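Hi support team,

I submitted a single chain yesterday and got back a structure, but I'm not sure I'm reading the token output correctly. Could someone confirm the output below corresponds to the sequence I sent? I've pasted both exactly as they appear in my results page.

Thanks,
R.
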Amino acid sequence: MAKKSAKPAGRKLKITLRVSPIGFNRKQGIVVESMGLRRIGHTVELSDTPETRGMIHKVRHLVEVGE
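Hi R., thanks for writing in. Yes, this is the structure output for that exact sequence:
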């Protein structure tokens, strides 16, 4: 069995909800919720991983991303 190496402290992304997901595809609303965004103007910090980048790509018209 291979050993898993500890991940180094990666970069963080600041993600801010700028547009309400109401009126868009329901799956996009679920992605916004799973990112931890609750209301317009709410900002969360998530680690910069391929999974996070995929979620950002799916709702890129609703959020603003900073570092």
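A quick pointer for reading it: DSSP finds two helices and three strands in the chain. Let us know if anything else looks off.

Best,
Support desk
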